[in-house]
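Checklist before submission:
- one chain only
- standard amino acids only
- sequence pasted in full

Submission:
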Amino acid sequence: MTRTPTRILTLFACAVLLLAGCSGGGDGADDGRITLRFQSLAWQDESVQANKELVREWNAGHPDVRVEYVQGSWDSVHDQLLTSFEGGEAPDIIHDASDDLADFAYGGYLADLTGLLPARLKSDIPQRSWETVTFGDGVYGVPFLQEPRVLIANATLLKESGVRIPTPEHPWTWPEFRQVTKELSGDGTYGVAWPLKEPVSATLNLSLSTGGQLFHRGADGKVTVRFETGDQVVPRTVHDQVDTDHSASPTTLGSGGSDTLPGFFAGKYAMVPLGFSYRQQIEQQAPEGFDWQVLPAPAGADGLAQGVSPQTLSIAEDSPHKKEAAAFVDFLLQPDNMVRLALGDWMLPTGERALKDPALHTDEHGWATGTALAEHLRSAPAQSVRGYAEWKDKVATPALQEYYSGAIGMDELRHRLEEDGNLVLARYQR
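Returned file contents:
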């Protein structure tokens, strides 16, 4: 095959650009207007509608900086973003989750937002939330939506049992929670159903309440895994509920959260630990007359603390319009707009002004309970650990699944999380 000389290729490329009005990469139009691409992972109808409405409002007020809404998917976002980064086709504004940012931040794909964000936004979001998007000396995303893990309970079964109903001010302890699930079991009902198809995040994040840390960073910056007493309370509770007390359903351990809802509605389980946003599915799918309520997760030595990986907005390092992208992020996360996004996703805003909105403090659908838990949310233990994804997939997930099913004991679980896990993490810290 004959190769076209480089000079001819160059002249041809220039001609194409001239015919296109000298606009390149989709960043501008013939009239010089800037176009920013905003990839959103909103998927619930209310959330998609809220995001698209805000994009339209921005475009109406900013004729020189147009935002194009691009629909993404949580199921494939990591691989899709990696491909777009490497191919130079990344969207300008990126919706993701904080626990997915570490490799992109360290890899140079995301812009450091330290000098781009307005003081208003920096001060409105508490430091504990900013810690979830801080890697090294840079800030690589804006945390804007978060959700605690809560107990969704069959209110009728709780009332009939006579057990104490916990509140954020007076939650159950982990031993009390175990006892309550025993009292709620019987006559074809389990006290609790743990959906642990993906057990690592739930186990680690809830273990913050019992003093668990698991990942320990040394003075040299390297991380090691130590599965200590505080880390063992939550997995031991689940194991004992399933294997000893028979107060937790063994069949749901391999299920996702949505898979437990039919059984929950049918009265097979009195409670299901779920993310706060599952309330929308429950409200939409519950049979008429089904009475449910939101309870705080159990508390341990560190109270109601639990880990969280907020949803985030980042800016691509390759974006030629970082200042304009930051201005759009600031608009999107104005307090009133943050409330709209939170209500659309049935989640909590990170912004302190937005959290004060009366709409988030109603008893209906448990909003007030969730909002009361916001101050207890902390950066998830694995947030800044390089190699966490491989450790989770190859070591922690199979080890926890085998432990919860009774195939291995606590000593073997500890050995695999520590010994096998540290071998994985070491490869990322050389």
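Reviewer check: The chain is about 40% helix and 15% strand.
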